[in-house]
Each structure stands twice: as structure tokens, then as C-alpha cells.
Amino acid sequence: MLRGLSDSEQIQKLLRREKALASFGIFAFREPDLQVILERAARVCAECLDVPFSKICRYRSAENDLLVVAGQGWKDGVVGYAISVADQTSPQGLAFETGEPQFCPNIAEANTYTLPAFYPDHRIISTADVLVAAEAGPAFGVLEVDSQVIDVFDEDDIGFLTCFANVLAEAVATADRAQVLQRTIAQMASLIQEKETLSQELKHRVRNSLHLVYGLLTAELEVEHDKPSILALRSIALRVMGLAEVFEHLLGTGMSRVINFGDYVSALCYNLPALYDQDHIKLVCAVVPVQLSLDVSTSVGIIITELVNNAYLHAFPNDIGEISVKLQGDAARMVLTISDNGVGFVEIETPRRGMNLVRRLVQQVNGTLTLRSDHGSTWTMEADGLMSAA
Question: What is the CATH number of domain 7-184?
């Protein structure tokens, strides 16, 4: 409403509107809540045009009507409730149907309109309506400002409202896309959580089953058997325990295929002595924390159990000595050392099945294995890029 103002006053008012429009645009494109955007838009429009009333109507295709979803200055029962048919029987319906801005200087004299009751209840006389529609997609609805003064709006007001409605339309479209994205993310999060729960349940069941098998094997070791049977049972028990420890360390990690291998090795070293009736053979462990994949951890874990088992069985004829497991480096380059102070390792013509398995697993993780056998045995495995190995 710039009529009756001096040139200086008109310029100041135009600048104020431009500033309000820019400020609203910055706010609207950052605000994720569509209702907050609409309420701010209604307030800013009323303030910029110096009128007591404004409203934003949303088109509902199923009902073919326009529902007031935000507004400024209205009594209770208008915002969220008042409805106009989306046709030429109301100012906002005409603006929506034609897509053209509409302003009515005296709505009481416009005999073509069938107005909702809230217009006379608020003594509305002048109205101005513009379409709220983004460049793509269906129109959102209509932006309307209302006054109790006759012939209060002019072309400058319509121009401002049109610019404002265009900014509002893009902000609405952005907010709608953000809400769709949020719903999609929420659905994905729900699916992931469901899979995490199933993953945890599966790990628990596998872990418990492995512990059950391990318990049965260790119980069988306490029964009197010949030496070959004991060796076979212990070999199976070692591998079952190694797998059980893998799943023990996977618990609580969701669907991750990575575990703390240092903690896993420490757990192995803690549990291994229980398989041997050798109180005077000491097993010590020194490890660094390193994250390795499930496949690599399983392979290297079996390597450790086989070499420690070999030391327990063959390194100490007097059943007295010490075995050391040492883990250094990281996933880029890891060095594993298993040593003992026993009689030393001597390769025989018929290789032990356990050593054949060790060598295959070392190749599987792209590692190298060396042996130094003087004053005991020292096995050293070195491997690069273990996260992607196996």
C-alpha cells in the first residue's frame, strides 16, 4: 500500500519489503518444519502490507477445496478449519483456478462471490490473492491478504505478493522434499534396526551353539581315551573355541564384519590353557589393538591356536616352559610372533596336518611365515593389507 506516500517514503517501504522478502527466503530454506514456514509467511505478508489479516490456503485435490492452513489476525475457528471451494465463487478460488493474481477493492460489491462466514465476521472489505506454485509440480494453494479498508491494495502490493508467493512455493517444495527424505531415512533406519536385531540374535545363537559344542568336547576330553582320540578331540575343540571367540567379540557390533583382533587374541590366550593339563607351562600374551575383518580374524585365530597347540604338545618333554604370543603393527602391516623356550621345532618328512593347515591359512591372508628354531621355536607371520585379505 504505497499510495499517498512521498517518493522517499515509497522507497523506504519498498526497501523494507525487499529486506523482509530476502530474510524470509533465508529462513524458509533452512527451516525443515513446513507449518513454521507457513506461519512465518502469513505474519511477514501482513506486516509488509500493513494489514491485520493474511492467510495461506492449501489446495486439497480430493475435496477440490482450499483449506486455511496458516494465517495472521484471525479469530479461532478459521486457521485449520475454514474452507473455500476451489472455483470462481471466492477470491482465492478464482486465483487458484485461473493462476492469475486477483485483488478486490470492495468484496461486498462483488456479487459473483459466495463468501465463507468468516469474511463478514471479520468485516473484510478488500482482498488480494496470488497463486502459490513452484516451477515444477502441482500448485500448493493461494496466499491472500485482507483488509477492513476499501480499495486498499494496488499493483505494487500484487507485485510484492507474487514475488513472496514464488519464494514461498519453492520453500514449500523444498520442505516437502525434506519431509519425504526424512520419512525415507526413518524407514531405512527402522529396517536397519530390524536387521541389526536379527543380526544380534543370530550371533547369540551361533555363539551359544559353539560354546555348547566346545563344552561337550572339553567334557569328552576328561573321559579316558587313547592318545590319538585325545589329540583329535583337542584339535576340534581348539577350532570351535576360536570360532566361538569370534562371535563373542562380534556381539554388540551390529552388522559389522570387523572386530578388535587384539582383544580376540587376548581372549584366546586366556582360554587356551584350559584345554591342557599342564600347570607348569605358562602362556603369556602381548597384543596391540587392531581392527581386522571377520574372515581374516578367523583365519589368523586358527593359526594361533594351531601353533600354540603344537608348542603345548611337542616343545616341553618335561612339561615345564613358557609360550609367548605377541601381536604388533596394524591392519596395514601386522606381525604375529608365537615363540616358546622348549626343545625347538623339527620338521619331519610327513608334515603334521595342523602345520599344513597353518601354511594354507597364511597364504590365504597373503602373509609369510618363518621359523627360527634355536633355544626354542619362534614362528613369525607377517602380512600386509589384512583388512582386504581373505
Answer: 3.30.450.40
